[in-house]
């Protein structure tokens, strides 16, 4: 069923958008971020009902949706959403897939993550082929402002959070032209693939953490002198 769902999505995109790369990527990014909304919705429901709380999962999946949002904003800035028919197809497909993944995530989270792994793999391959075929042209075009703000000059904390394979380290893409932007997006997709694979591992529910998670170590105060007033600010002098 998972491969069928992905196969339908890939077939539609490949058939309709064979020679229209930016609308193709717009539709792909609109649909690609939806499963992360599905995961977050179910996780919030579990937490609300008191069944399960795992803040790292919420954090990582939100960071993934934040990353995909900026992919979408980049495609919109390139005119990918200019035609109303592309918007209708993208949003209708996204709505359908949202509810499918919600139900699937309730039944078998591992299958829901496998679905997204396959979608992200397709996205990586699509961007890689596009880069290979259009390298010279893309290097002559400027990077969109939204890409510069997300990858280079903005708040990069959430950018690090979804990359579970980069524990306590940073990946900072070079953004000088449109080619660099698509390289960064392509590499993001592979990071999503790795994260989705990590979510399918055995005992993931108990071991999966975001890249910034750290454990508070207990402090032995048996032989320590503690100055409880050391952190109290002194009264300011007039």
TrEMBL record:
GO molecular function (one): metal ion binding
A cellular component annotation (GO) from this entry: membrane
GO BP term, pick one: alternative respiration
Keywords noted in UniProt: Electron transport, Iron, Membrane, Metal-binding, Oxidoreductase, Respiratory chain, Transmembrane, Transmembrane helix, Transport
InterPro entries per the UniProt record, alphabetical: AOX, AOX_sf
Superkingdom of the source species: Bacteria
Keyword DNA repair: no
Cofactors named for this entry: Fe cation
One Pfam family cited in the UniProt record for this chain: AOX
UniProt protein name: Plastoquinol terminal oxidase
